[in-house]
Specification:
Blueprint (H helix, E strand, L loop, with lengths): L15 H4 L8 H34 L2 H23 L6 H29 L4 H29 L4 H55 L6 H37 L3 E6 L4 E5 L20 E4 L2 E5 L3 H14 L5 E6 L4 H6 L7 E6 L2 H9 L1 H6 L9 E5 L2 H10 L9 E7 L14 H9 L1 E12 L5 H12 L4 E8 L35 E8 L19 H13 L18
Parallel strand pairs: 5-6, 5-8, 6-7, 8-9
Antiparallel strand pairs: 1-2, 2-3, 3-4, 9-11, 10-11
Helix pairs in contact: 2-3, 2-4, 2-5, 2-6, 3-5, 4-5, 4-6, 4-7, 6-7, 12-13
Length: about 575
């Protein structure tokens, strides 16, 4: 006997829940709007997590271009993995989405605190950063397939229309999250509390959608499990908000030591100052008042140490002042007032213009007892005019002014800026930047540039020199021994204490060595003379013999044929 053929099933059956219309407590129209609203909120939270990881990676590890590329590429890859894994959850989309949102809220909300803890107590954060990027990306990637299933169960429509609605809400939410991060969360709450609050919003949005709108899809056990999980996540995030301030103080103490006495987020960077609170502390070498010698950190990188800063600033300022007239001086950067202190030692100086980006640093240089004592209150001198602006934009604006409104040319321009290898500083070491500066130089004026470590990062240093030459200036490269061991691109402390972070000025004499140098480039339209001015008080830590030895050393180690760095092709990150 031949069995009759079985009937052919048309269509591809999906998971039972995915094909069944949901029983909702509201009509389909408002229910669908609620799903799209949750898509909007989740997209905003997801982008905040991404931006928070990029910002934190830049601060903890350095090199914003590389860190942003790593975080975003890992997250996009992980989102694809998450989308594939979510296929197994579509049979119970409501439960799956509730679990994903609870996990994402906890992981994303606590990521900033966890990464900062790794940095402060374990000395490295790169591997944790990649791990959080991967975990957050997987959870974000799982959202869209589950939300697509849920929105189709509210009211079935063609796939193209559903995808268009879902992605429209997703993209608008991403826009809001992207704007909220720099303009709302960071200024009002900071990275730690901002991430924790974002996690709380994420958990509430997911909980409302699943536990209220799709409550009939849940068994009693699933309902109570999700309710307990969301409550636990919210309690943990709330505890994190309450403990954020003491946690940050403890982490800062682990990084900078117990003498950290100033810690402010200026909107431009984090500024931390240690030591310099005793009588004479911070006044210079050999004076160890309460808390030890003053040290100033910007975004975790040591910038000033009262122990040895005088050598750096004397080598930066005095050769340029000695090579010709120096009545009008322009300082690009130098908001700590220390380069200005050295400039004002020259009796011929009539005016000094300081262009500094961060008003917080200027405020400390004027008001902090230790730092103002160290800079001899130079920024309060009547000959000094301070401009709060980006140095590149300020130079550009001067060039755009008409002849009658343009600045009179400067005899000396001092470029006292962070190392060029830090991605945010590359435009301040570009051919365009030096071209703009040259337009403000007097015919016999000089430009001096802090150009980074000439031995440890020789290619970087000689690229700066080549870029300065590319705008038509003759250069005299020179160096001065005493730069500390460099942890370039820092401040990831995987191998070194914070005192040996790549710095403009060494934290203390023991961390410096005779084979580590600060590098400078002195430039003018005609080859300038390298020496010291006879009309200035003798420098405390610099001699003509040292300068000439530094010039001969650089002449011997010269790297030729390097291309100039430009805005469109920065060479310092190669």
């Amino acid at each position: 006997m031949i069995d009759p053929p079985e009937p052919v099933l048309t269509g591809v059956p999906g998971p039972p829940e995915a094909m069944t219309p949901a029983r909702l407590p509201v009509p389909a129209g408002p229910g669908r709007l609620l799903v799209l609203a949750v898509v909007f909120v989740c997209a905003a939270c997801g982008l905040v997590y991404e931006l928070e990881l990029v910002a934190l990676a830049t601060y903890l590890v350095g090199d914003s271009v590389t860190q942003a590329s790593i975080v975003l590429s890992v997250m996009v890859f992980a989102m694809g993995v998450g989308a594939l894994l979510a296929k197994r959850l579509r049979c119970r989309a409501a439960v799956g989405f509730g679990a994903v949102e609870a996990g994402l809220a906890l992981v994303g909300g606590s990521s900033a605190m966890a990464l900062y803890a790794c940095f402060a107590w374990f000395g490295q954060s790169r591997s944790a950063l990649v791990g959080f990027s991967l975990a957050i990306g997987i959870l974000i990637g799982a959202e869209v397939p589950l939300l697509m299933t849920l929105i189709q169960r509210v009211r079935r429509q063609d796939a193209g229309g559903a995808v268009a609605d879902l992605f429209a809400a997703d993209y608008v939410g991403a826009l809001v999250g992207g704007l909220a991060f720099p303009f709302l969360l960071l200024p009002l709450f900071g990275q730690l509390t901002g991430a924790l609050l974002t996690g709380g919003v994420n958990a509430v949005a997911g909980g409302v959608l699943v536990l209220w709108l799709f409550r009939d899809d849940l068994s009693a056990r699933a309902r109570w499990t999700l309710l307990g999980a969301n409550a636990l996540v919210l309690v943990l995030l709330a505890a994190g908000v309450l403990l954020a301030a003491p946690f940050e103080r403890a982490a800062r103490q682990a990084v900078y030591g117990s003498s950290a006495r100033v810690a402010v987020q200026t909107g431009i960077q984090e500024v931390v100052m240690t030591g310099g609170t005793g009588d004479g502390a911070g006044a210079g070498r050999g004076r160890k008042g309460l808390g030890g010698p003053l040290a100033l950190y910007l975004d975790g990188r040591l910038r000033v140490s009262a122990e040895t800063e005088y050598r750096y600033h004397e080598a930066l300022v005095h050769p340029a002042m000695a090579a010709g007239p120096h009545r009008r001086v322009l300082v690009l950067g130098g908001g700590d007032g220390l380069a200005v202190r050295e400039i004002l030692r020259h009796r011929q100086v009539r005016s000094v213009t300081v262009v500094e980006l961060d008003p917080g640093v200027l405020r400390l240089a004027r008001r902090d007892p230790g730092l103002s004592r160290l800079n001899h209150r130079s920024l309060s001198d009547p000959r000094v005019r301070v401009v709060t602006a980006d140095a590149f934009e300020w130079l550009r604006q001067q060039g755009l002014r008409g002849r009658g409104r343009r600045q009179a040319p400067f005899d000396v321009i001092v470029s006292d800026l962070p190392d060029p290898g830090i991605a945010a500083s590359t435009k301040l070491y570009s051919q365009e930047f030096y071209g703009l500066a040259t337009r403000l130089l007097a015919p016999d004026g000089r430009l001096v540039v802090h150009a980074g470590p000439p031995v440890e990062r020789a290619r970087l240093y000689w690229t700066v020199e080549s870029t300065v030459r590319s705008v038509g200036l003759a250069t005299v490269p020179y160096r001065l021994a005493g730069r500390p061991a460099s942890f370039y691109g820092g401040p990831d402390r995987a191998a070194s204490p914070v005192a040996s972070v790549d710095a403009e000025v060494p934290a203390a004499a023991p961390s410096a060595g005779p084979d580590r140098y600060w590098g400078f480039v002195l430039a003018a339209r005609h080859r300038p003379r390298l020496g010291l001015a006879p009309d200035a008080p003798p420098p405390a830590g610099l001699t003509c013999a040292e300068l000439q030895a530094g010039r001969r050393g650089e002449a011997h180690d010269r790297m030729s044929g390097l291309p100039a760095s430009t805005l469109m092709h920065p060479r310092y990150l190669d």
